[in-house]
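Researcher: Structure for this, please.
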Amino acid sequence: MKRLFLFVLLISLSVFAFSQTAADSGISSLDAYYLGRAVAANILSTYKLYNNTELTQYANKICQALVINSDYPAPYNGYFVMILDSDEFNAFATPGGHIFITKRLAQAASSEDMLAAVIAHELAHIMLNHGINIINEKKIENELSAVADWAASTAAKQSAEAARAASFRNSITTTVDILMRSGYSQTQEFEADLEAVVMLARAGYDPGALLEMLKVLQSAAAMSSTTGGYINSTHPSPQQRIANVEALKFRKNDTLRYRVQRFKNLKF
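Model: Predicted structure, token format:
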């Protein structure tokens, strides 16, 4: 059933990619959405969702507060935050607006502001098109176009399905590898931190919460060399990011009284 679901999802991606790339040589917002769905499906084939509705809804409310105070329009079909049942310190953001945060990373936050800092950083990657930029650099849009051609042709004649399906899975695997494992460049990470600071301030959160979160990750990294991808694989070191954020000038808007109690009431 899982294979059937993924195959249908990948076919949907290719059909929509075909309709968009005919008029535009780049990846459209609709392309990004369906690509993001395919990547999200692969993430969920590796991780399980954390069964905590209250935490998930809470994180999504924070996300929406950040989005409406940003300068960027919401992507096709909006943003969604999901919590992964994992003890890694990790987070992923797909081009389609899907944000995944591990339970361990969420639990590391000791305030709503710190959780908002994690979400803001992942939002920034999507808003700044970091994933799409990597994909464009790797020329994966050409693969999507080729797969879309295949989808159109096989609609009329069912030929060589298995070989083509395998080829498409390889394309998505390449995308997942870039977004989940190879990670963003140091420059992109610093850009995401800067944009996160701006979003936090505009939404009334303490921008310094990003520094607090980075210091938590720094401590975790010092305690273990196997704490998970968020620290060791797909991001620069917390020390580098701390130094970069500390160099920024930001103003704190204090709305703390509105959110301290609701965070205390939250059950992880």
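Researcher: Any notable elements?
Model: The chain has one domain: 2-134+180-265. The CA atoms of residues 35 and 267 lie 33 Å apart.
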